[in-house]
Specification:
By secondary structure, this protein is an alpha/beta fold. The protein is built from 14 helices and 13 strands. The strands form three sheets. Strands 2-9-8-7-6-3-4-5 form an eight-stranded mixed beta sheet, sandwiched between helices. The longest helix has 21 residues. The protein is globular.
């Protein structure tokens, strides 16, 4: 077997299962899970109808490139959402089976393992796939801490020039998981300049871009930053988007990668061998989702309601702030984050995720220590109930 498999660490939820197994929950209270970022809002009826109405397309092989109608729907959405003058549906868009699969696969295609010290640079905390994909592509992950004093974003100005020289792929997560921080245009502009200077690829994971409270501006995307800089070829830049969070369709496994055509062409070749074409009925359902914004606005309204209600309950007793975007809260714990999560589960039957499970300790610093991630994915009523239980728990500490 590939020896690099030995470098992979347990997934955060595997660690969480072991942590919870050491205690017994208060079964007098129904369980409320705020640990997994799986949307619980209903899937749009019209998407379900498009899926079942085209179930006979199971009889047909899909192509890796995808239906022209889907690629065009994605291109049209990108132009509308990010104010792009143009994006070519044929050469600058590829549909994928969710961003998790695509992020991993793109890393395998993008990394040149023959280089002396190939690095994949990513934020810390981070989505676990960035690390695993780097190791299995023959690269080393290099983590940049996302600390409160820097707005929970990496301090890119402190990165050594040698790191940029060795960097082959820079992962951005904006809005961030778990911090919800959005990287502003000025910083994206500097990173694009660095990518040109040091010849690396910027891969921006933007799957939370459509979840933000009503009072805030829609998060900027990497392609939008390119547009403002007059880079309509999106050189060295790709973005990943998904219907999982935007449209409450995590089980559809539908998203896309878009950007630099010179990068997508060889990636398409890789995918042809990889064998990961999206089923046709899924593509047709995806077209329906990308073409509608009404359900996205309703989705956002519900998250806005949950954020306001939960923060009103928790802020008098805890250090927790409204995030820029995403459906997460990044709560500072008054005790060790593992102890907090374990005892909260035992006493109040609420599950949250210790922040250290999403981070790595680098130079003695783990940016997730002393924090837990709360995913406000349950119903409004359940989120309010969970917040009240968390408040009660904190007041006993």
């Amino acid at each position: 077997m590939n020896p690099d498999l030995n470098k992979l660490q347990p997934y955060p939820f595997e660690k969480l299962t072991k942590l919870k197994a050491a205690v017994s929950p208060n079964t007098e209270l129904p369980h409320i899970a705020l640990s997994i970022g799986e949307p619980k809002h209903p899937a749009p009826d019209f998407v379900q109808q498009a899926l079942t109405g085209n179930i006979k397309r199971l009889e047909n092989y899909p192509t890796t490139k995808g239906l022209p109608e889907l690629n065009q729907a994605i291109a049209d959405w990108l132009k509308q959402r990010f104010s792009l003058d143009a994006i070519d549906a044929v050469s600058q868009v590829i549909p994928v089976n969710g961003t998790r699969e695509a992020i991993f696969a793109f890393t395998q295609a993008a990394v040149d393992r023959s280089a002396s010290n190939p690095l994949v640079v990513s934020p810390n905390p981070f989505y676990q796939i960035y690390e695993g994909a780097a190791y299995l592509a023959g690269a080393e992950p290099h983590f940049l801490p996302c600390l409160e004093e820097n707005g929970f974003m990496p301090d890119f100005d402190k990165v050594a020039p040698q790191v940029w020289d060795d960097c082959q792929l820079l992962f951005l997560c904006s809005p961030g998981n778990p911090t919800g921080a959005v990287i502003p245009f000025e910083q994206l502009s500097k990173l694009i300049e660095l990518a040109d200077k040091h010849d690396f690829i910027i891969a921006s994971d933007e799957c939370y871009s459509e979840i933000f409270v009503d009072s805030k501006e829609a998060p900027i995307g990497l392609l939008e930053a390119c547009q403002r800089l007059g880079r309509n070829d999106y050189k060295r830049c790709v973005v990943f988007h998904s219907l999982s969070k935007r449209s409450n369709l995590p089980g559809l496994r539908s998203g896309f990668i878009a950007g630099d055509a010179d990068l997508l062409k060889p990636f398409l070749l890789y995918r042809t061998y990889h064998g990961c074409a999206m089923p046709i009925q899924t593509q047709l359902a995806s077209i329906a989702a990308w073409n509608d914004e009404q359900h996205v606005e309703e989705n956002r309204r519900q998250y806005t309601e949950k954020f306001r209600a939960v923060l009103e309950i928790l802020q008098p007793v805890a250090d927790v702030q409204q995030t820029d975007a995403s459906f997460y809260l990044w709560l500072k714990t008054p005790v060790n984050e593992e102890t907090f999560a374990q005892q909260l589960f035992a006493q109040q039957h609420v599950t949250v995720l210790p922040g250290s499970y999403l981070s790595r300790t680098i130079d003695g610093i783990n940016p997730g220590e002393g924090r837990v991630r709360m995913a406000l994915v349950a119903s409004v009523e359940e989120c309010i109930e969970a917040a009240q239980r968390i408040k009660t728990f904190i007041e006993t500490l």
